[in-house]
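pasting for the record
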Amino acid sequence: MIDAEQIKSFLDQEADLLDMYDKRNETHFFIKVSICHWNDKNGLHMRKDIRVLSRKSGKSWVEWFDEDCSNSGANFIYKNFKDLEEGEYKVTIQEHRDWETGYVDDWTYKAEKI
């Protein structure tokens, strides 16, 4: 026999999954761009960090962006963000659909400073 505690636990798990699904189906997330310059005996260096803001975006977007970077390669992803200055951005995913099937076959990122 199932008791009330087991039912509550099951419903809580379902609610967490639905919340994660809803956040994942949003078409935007937030990033922070940081640029650092330094010099040493080997020359002048510049580094650009692009981090997903997990509190604003949700944990599923951090995992999704990390997976997209590892599957597509950092150079491919960086093309979408190379012109960004330091600051926080809202990134919208622009889906490109196959004209025959209607399935998403590619996407690009569009960043707007907030």
